[in-house]
Amino acid sequence: MTEQDKPVLSPPVAIANPQRRSLLRGAGLFGGGLLAGGLGSAAWFGQLAKPVDPAQQVVPYRGQHQAGITTPAAQEAIFIAFDVLARDRQGLQATLQLLTERIAFLTQGGPAPVDHPKMPPPDSGLLGSNISADGLSITVAVGASLFDQRFGLQAQRPRQLSQMQAFANDALDAAWCDGDLLLQCCAHSRETVIHAVRDIIKHCPDKLAARWKMDGFLPAGAVRHSSTPINLFGFKDGTGNPDTADSAQMNALVWVDDKDQEPAWAKGGSYVAIRLIRFTLEQWDRTPLGEQQGIFGRDKASGAPLGKTHEFDDPGFAADPHGQQVPLDSHMRRAEPRQHGRHDARLLRRSYSYSLGLTKSGQLDMGLVFICFQSNLQTGFIATQHRLDGEPLEEYIKPFGGGYFFALPGVSGSDYLGAGLLQAGR
Ligand SMILES: C=CC1=C(C)c2cc3[nH]c(cc4nc(cc5[nH]c(cc1n2)c(C)c5CCC(=O)O)C(CCC(=O)O)=C4C)c(C)c3C=C
Ligand SMILES: [Fe+2]
Fold it and tell me: Of the four, 29, 156, 352, 364, which is 20 to 30 A from 221 by CA?
């Protein structure tokens, strides 16, 4: 078991009730630092009373799985897709080795490197002379295009990895889609994720060409208090997620393993579906509350399923077969009909809000970077999105970018990210 896989609480403390679950989500600011420090669960509650400084939090980048997937979501994010400039396998290996080195440095923190004043400074200086780890995680995922003829990796492509095809309500813009590599950078402060992306771009001018980039954010209060973040429609978003502290569930839903019949190197990785979705907020803000709530199937203030009292209450669909409480076409009911047990939607969501300028027609350009992780893309994102196709929410959303990627398995010892893939492709 790697550091990253150790349960935050020992198994007898089962996460049965929602209060416990939201408490566990609180490990966001505390748990990662403790794991990094190698402390056990006994000290965990003690630390709750005396939180560590978030700026000092180190999220281990090594482990069976990459960080940034089941890691509690930090407040700030940058999603950036690149095309690889290398022309051969050796060049790709050098790129992944350098990326791993940068991730190791940036996520652990330390003194900013200095050089001769006649040289360009090796660090941007954005974080001062001492770079804080600041809860930074950088997750590396590969796109289907990496498995074309350039690197001879065709036979190693994860079985379900392909270019994302448009769904019925999509207006995909190629400039915002796909890429050989996707980096998800998350940290407690904006300057830390910007510093990380600038560092990687500075070190890889001959290796990576940026293709598209989107900044994401979560409400500060929700992250600080470990409550469910509220999206730009004003609804709590994440309530129905599976429990990341339940490793059996994560193995079933998120991590590729022997059950998935994927290439051996892919074990420990996860499929990523990322969607850039613009909201028509001017129209939404003129929509009656009752209609808004019917669209999601939840109470706007509490997040409870309609007809229930608390956020984590079971919606009781079996007792509401005609949708008198939670409409049959509401977002939550279509996404997770709960017909065959709890997880019809076999995925873990980890979405962020985005806010750009104005659209060409003068509307707010704001929305959601929807991102989810799953061991099976077909039964995860694709099946769920098909159930959502035609939902009433579509009147207020327009997906315009993103793609499918595969988050590489974690890295151990002195290995580099993707080493298993490149060795398998020999
Ligand atoms: C294909 C998967 C999904 C897409 C795309 C998606 C887009 C999307 N979602 C919201 C807001 C909410 N989603 C909520 C629940 C929810 N959404 C999905 C899947 C997709 N959402 C699932 C599997 C679930 C869980 C349903 C459940 O278990 O009850 C909710 C309700 C609160 C919650 O559980 O998180 C909200 C709110 C937006 C705005 C959006 C794209 C524009
Ligand atoms: Fe959703």
Answer: 364
Task: List 197's β-bridge partners, or say none.
Answer: none
Asked casually if ipTM beats, i.e. exceeds, 0.95, the reply is: yes
Over residues 210-236, the pLDDT tens digits come to 999 999 999 998 988 889 999 999 999
Spatial separation of the C-alpha atoms in residues 235 and 237, rounded to whole Å: 6
The three-state secondary structure class of 219 is coil
Distance, CA of 416 to CA of 411 (rounded, Å): 6
Q: Is 298 annotated as a binding residue?
A: yes
Is 411 in a helix, a strand, or coil? strand
Shortest-distance ligand to the CA of residue 371: 1
Distance from Cα 393 to the centre of ligand 2, integer Å: 10
Compute, in degrees rounded to 10, the torsion defined by CA atoms 49, 53, 54, 60.
-90
CA distance 88 to 81: 20
- Kindly report each contact of residues 108-114 with a partner whose C-beta sits within 8 Å and lies 24 or more positions away, as own/partner: 108/58, 108/61, 108/133, 109/58, 109/133, 109/134, 109/136
Spatial CB neighbours of 419, under 8 Å, sequence gap ≥ 6: 96, 411
Instruction: Tell me the residue type at 133.
Output: A
Q: Rounded to 5 degrees, what are φ and ψ at 40?
A: -90, 180
Rounded to whole angstroms, the Cα distance separating 325 from 225 reads 30
pTM: 0.91
pLDDT in tens, 236-256: 999 999 999 999 999 999 999
